[in-house]
Amino acid sequence: MLNSQKLAWGVPLTVVSLLWAMIPVKSAAQGFPSYRLVVEADYARCVQQLQDAGVSPRATATACGMAIRPRNIGECVTLITRDAGIAGDEAVLGCMSVRRPQELANCVVNITRSNSEANALTVLEGCGRSLLPERYASCVVGMGSGSTEFAVNDLLRVCLNPPEQFSDMDRRF
User: Fold this and answer.
1) What pLDDT does 173 receive?
2) Phi and psi of 67, rounded to 5°?
3) Which of 12, 26, 77, 156: disulfide with 30, CB 3.0–4.6 Å?
4) Alpha-carbon span 41 to 47, nearest angstrom
């Protein structure tokens, strides 16, 4: 009796095990999102853009080699050097120190274009310190266009660190 029970359970378990083996399974690479976000051409483009911006060869190699998305670093440096007039070596440091280099470039360019009095390096520092660079730029540009009484450096500081009474308006959440 005991052997017939083992046999009765053994056959279905074997069949089920074999059925699972026959079902096609995605490989680990297919089961997750593609991590092939970068191709060799992105590195070459990054190097070319940084060299065109006047970045030193050592800084170029470090920046493009360490970047998760080298294409974004190259575009960030190109925009900042071309449109904001910041030296390439300064721009690459800023672009490498943030999570969103494209937003940093947009921030720096928008603020420097809207206000000719703005010191480009101070703007780069402020945009780099902001967690949301494009929102920061909107604050600085918007407040600057709304009133000419505010100095650019004051706007850069206030938009980065709003006064306590404005940030703590609603503590219910």
Assistant:
1) 45
2) -70, 140
3) 26
4) 10
Give the residue carrying structure tokens 């026959």: 22
pLDDT tens-digit map of 10-58? 666 666 566 556 665 555 445 544 556 668 899 999 999 999 999 999 9
The radius of gyration of the chain from alpha carbons, rounded to an integer in Å, stands at: 27
Return contacts of 133-137, CB within 8 angstroms, 24+ apart.
133/98, 133/100, 133/103, 133/104, 133/106, 133/107, 134/103, 134/106, 134/107, 134/110, 136/107, 136/160, 137/106, 137/107, 137/108, 137/110, 137/111
The single-letter code of the amino acid at 55 is V
Tens-place pLDDT, residues 53-77: 999 999 999 999 999 889 999 999 9
3-state secondary structure of 173: coil
165 φ/ψ angles, rounded to the nearest 5 degrees: -65, -25
